Amino acid sequence: DGRLVSDDWRVGGEEPIIAVTHSVNNMALACRTAPVASKVVIVDGASVLTGNLQAFDDVARQQRLLIIADHDQLEDVSVLRERGCQVWLPHPDAILIGLHETHSAGQGWFARFVSSTRNAGSLSISAHVATDPLLEETVTALRRIEAVTDPEAEEARRIMSGVYGVLSRLTEWLGGSGAAARQSLRAELENLQRSLQRSAPSLTREFRQGITAVIAMLGTAAEGDRHVGAGKLSCLLSLLRNECSSTAIVVRSAHSAARLRRVLDSHDIQVDVHHAGSEITQGYDRIILGCWPGRRLAGRVINQYAARAVLLVGYPFEIDWLNAFQRWRRRQLS
Question: For 283-306, how does the pLDDT look when each residue is reduced to its tens digit (9 = 90+)?
Answer without folding.
Answer: 999 999 999 999 999 999 999 999
